[in-house]
Amino acid sequence: MSNCIFCRIIAGEIPAVKIYEDDLVLAFLDISPINFGHTLVIPKEHHESSSTIPEATAGRMFRVGSRIGIALKRKFDYDAFNLHLADGTAAGQVVMHAHLHVVPRGVEDGFRWNWRQLKYGEGEMQEFAEKLSAKLAADLAGESGK
Ligand code: AMP
Ligand code: ZN
Fold it and tell me: What pLDDT does 146 receive?
């Protein structure tokens, strides 16, 4: 897509500091990192949502992302890493070409995810699970082979 900033990086029209590239994915440094070394792993094919990325490419994204996390720990003395993917504007996705964030973390890095912990009412957890698993099974059945 010509108006997509990440497709333009893949095409070499916009500079990026590359970390890894193969036939399916490209990894490059995030320009505004949470911690230094924060990397983005993207499919070379344009997909807005993670859900349409072919399985082999999605698997490569995850594998490369976690290996980058390990390399960040081993080489730069980080303690851990987060893999983060925002799918949709309400989830915080700003660039509409799917991307996996690899965020290196230190015990004392001063960054916290704004996580909350709700509680289900009586029976709500089971009801939620039944509806969700039935919908997932129906959707996946229509997608076999992709
Ligand atoms: P998200 O909010 O998940 O869509 O994240 C988009 C990320 O892309 C942000 O962390 C930005 O800092 C990063 N970003 C945007 N433009 C560029 C660019 N030209 N090079 C590297 N990272 C970028
Ligand atoms: Zn794109």
Answer: 47
